[in-house]
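Subject: complex prediction, re-run

Hi both,

The earlier run crashed halfway through, so I resubmitted it with identical inputs.
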Amino acid sequence: MLRLIRSSDLTKPDDLEKIREKIAANRIQLKSIDFWLRYFDPISYRKENGPLPVEWETEVFEKFEMPYRRKGAGLSLAEKYMDERESLNKDSLSQLIQTSIDSLVMFKRDSVMMQFASPDHFFLANRLYLLNLAAVYTTGFECPDTSRIIPELRSLLPAVRNIYDQFATDFPSTPLSKNYLELYDRMLAFVNSQPKQFSLFDQFTLIRDYINPLFKHNQQFIRNYNVLSISFNDYALNNETSSIFDKSLFISQNTKGIFSLVDDPAALGEVKRVGKLLFYDPILSGNNKRSCASCHKPTEYFTDTSVATALQFEGGGHLPRNAPSLINSVFNHLIMLDGKHISLQGQAQDVMTKHEEMNSNEEELVKKVLTCKEYRDVFKKLLKLTPEEKNISFGHIISAITYYYADFSYYYSPFDRAMNENGGVSNEVKQGFNLFMSKAQCGTCHFVPHFNGIKPPYIGSEFEVLGVPADTAYSRLSDDKGRYDANPASETLHAFRTSTVRNIEFTKPYMHNGVFRTLDQVIDFYDAGGGAGKKLDVPNQTLASDPLKLSSPEKGALISFLHSLNENVIFEAPPSSLPVSSDKSLNARKVGGEY
Amino acid sequence: MIIMKSLYLIILSFFSFLLLHQCTSEKKTVYVIPDHVTPRNRQLLTEKAEKGRVLYKLHCSECHGIFTKGKDGVPNFTQTQIDNYHAAALMGIDPRNHAVAKKMSAEQVDQVITFLSLRKRD
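This time it finished cleanly. Structure:
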């Protein structure tokens, strides 16, 4: 390949075509060992086939350290670079390839090679492979030339079948079952029977009838063979789930907080009961007029659909960002649209003590809450269950709140049920999903199964620069710096964490600043190629600025699919009254606060 | 007779007090915190370590050392062992052997690690 680049004339279309073909052939070769590379060293994999020149790693470990800057290289980037006619030069192109060759040695180090001695990693790598098959391989996430997605898939599947055969010879005592292999072969036949054009490919059936049942088998192997992981890739994944669309597929937030070690259902019931009261109680704010429910209305999917961005404390105008729905917020590793917080408890603490929001402070808040006999009695009882804590603390209060609202994230949508129970959806929904995963390019950022920014193995949250405007006339870019506030770098300016599209019909307005009031406006924004497509100056936009050219029936199908992600959330009535305080001035407070 | 009885009772209660005192009192754990740490942070670290001590006693000591009369029998883990375990616990590795560490919040893991790291080793 390097020789080919050296001997080519990059101004000649014929020579460029030859390099492109060579890249494509190399990608097919890479795909045959993708199965192992991605699992054993996902960091070095970015040098082989990284999707972006620079990625800020927001893996789980960012919870405990500063983010890492990872430079990408390899085939996808070389392919993209070849489109940049003006700046194209041999040195830079060779460099992208040379880096990927140099990085190959990383996969041969002892810590990787010794893992081949046990069968455990095979099943774990296979799980990651199946999850990637559902979420990444078919969407073009790391294959810029969309005409090659399905051909690559067709060569990937048999290559993995060869790995299966090799595994059967090497580890005969822990086999893949006959059922598994038969189903896998049927999947191969299905993929070969489907059209080559990825926008016509039936991804819905591929996932529902093949990938998800294979995943279930593999989870059984992991449990039955007592497979043990030594890789951070498996940090979040749960071995007990049998469906990719089961909400316990992975763990991203500890909703119990300080009550983590409490198991007694009666005690947890008490935590939840008091959590609900606190959620509606304006005693948590400085002026006793604002509660969590002021901006996250529990009867409106825990968001406020009436305003673009929430009101500030004491009439200071509006906050810069739209109040997000708390439903499904537990399926994020980093909290807030800029990923400022690592835990739900950290976010709750911030909002209660921030001057522009609830304007309270820890000490005063705990004192006020404990003037209410009902709270005091419950927390006194609960204190015994957290023996390491000497006093009732702010931690007890915020953990009760997060534990209360987290429950509302565990409802399912008709689409989940179709996937989980092998059920059906209308043709339009199916077509909408297939578009979501292909031509409309939604699935390259909103990943299966939560359709948010967490991709397999579900250990980090992704941030994207979309070029969201300040107004619907697209007169200028929104001046919110987004992720830059938490992690300043040229790549993170105006980047926001990818939110889920579940319940989207009921959680308007959209985008970080609530600029769009309808889904049609949102789809038009993406159809045009985001802010850059709308002629705004967004030099670091991560969304492709080319128009998607969606037809109006296609847009209709997309919206039908989005509606099939409305979860059947069962809302509860607010509490009829709040606990009585010994401080009489606090007893005028209203359920849910005043504004 | 009555005097004898009360004297007997007094002596008995004195000895039982001594006995009970010996059984229940633990040697206070000493924490080694570098000199450059400010008094405020020193206090915070000690509070954190004390929380970790309670958690360790409840959830770890059954297998890893015992707290008995007058003695704190926690094994002298090396700092490398502690650091490795910290990383492993955060990564959720080895859940079968340490289910309790998997259940703990990150703060609680941190408290236990702080206790082990700061406590004065024998």
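Chain B touches chain A through 21 residues (CB under 8 Å).

- K.
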